[in-house]
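Quick one, tokens below:
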């Protein structure tokens, strides 16, 4: 049994990740902003902890995640407001990385997106620009850290049922093909169990290869 902390624990991917992990016998601490969401976390076996990471210091986050085996950063501002996007997707992500290092939680999984890069080439007047910038800098900050990191980078998300299968960029996946959120959750669980994914960014879409096989090949 392992202990996992999920930052942004009420998102659809985070809730499904929690369900998969707790069903497998692990413990999950879910950091959430809204106390009203605690019952949803508890319903899938997680332990909710109220922590608004947009305003939490690194030390406050470190206090919560100390003693865990890994951190999953799945928080996001949800777009629409560039200032909040930078505050959550970049600044809070960076503080969470610092917190994991300070708390000696070596394993860190970042949920990003297919194509995330400091050279993303999204025009500044595009509504996606703030998100692309925020994720690029957070991902780069994680790469430069002393943590055992993996970046999980799915394509456009859907609420379709899980298929248990994906296609990675390494196997020819291209942006434009959707992937079910439930399959993204399964990828997170798979990389947590697969040490060879450390130091890798796994970009993927929906596909036809079993997730465990795809993750192993991408490593």
């Amino acid at each position: 049994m392992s202990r996992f902390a999920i930052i942004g624990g009420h998102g659809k991917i985070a809730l499904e990740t929690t369900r998969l992990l707790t069903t497998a016998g692990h413990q999950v601490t879910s950091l959430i902003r809204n106390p009203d969401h605690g019952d949803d976390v508890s319903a899938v076996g997680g332990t909710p902890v109220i922590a608004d990471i947009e305003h939490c210091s690194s030390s406050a986050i470190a206090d919560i995640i100390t003693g865990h085996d890994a951190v999953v950063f799945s928080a996001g501002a949800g777009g629409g407001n560039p200032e909040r996007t930078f505050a959550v997707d970049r600044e809070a992500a960076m503080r969470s990385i610092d917190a994991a290092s300070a708390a000696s939680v070596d394993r860190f999984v970042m949920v990003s997106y297919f194509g995330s890069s400091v050279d993303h080439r999204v025009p500044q007047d595009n509504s996606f620009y703030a998100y692309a910038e925020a994720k690029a800098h957070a991902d780069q900050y994680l790469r430069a850290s002393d943590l055992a990191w993996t970046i999980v980078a799915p394509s456009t998300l859907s609420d379709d049922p899980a298929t248990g299968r994906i296609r990675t960029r390494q196997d020819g996946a291209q942006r434009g093909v959707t992937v079910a959120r439930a399959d993204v959750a399964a990828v997170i669980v798979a990389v947590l169990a697969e040490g060879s994914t450390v130091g890798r960014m796994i970009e993927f879409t929906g596909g036809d290869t079993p997730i465990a096989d795809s993750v192993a090949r991408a490593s």
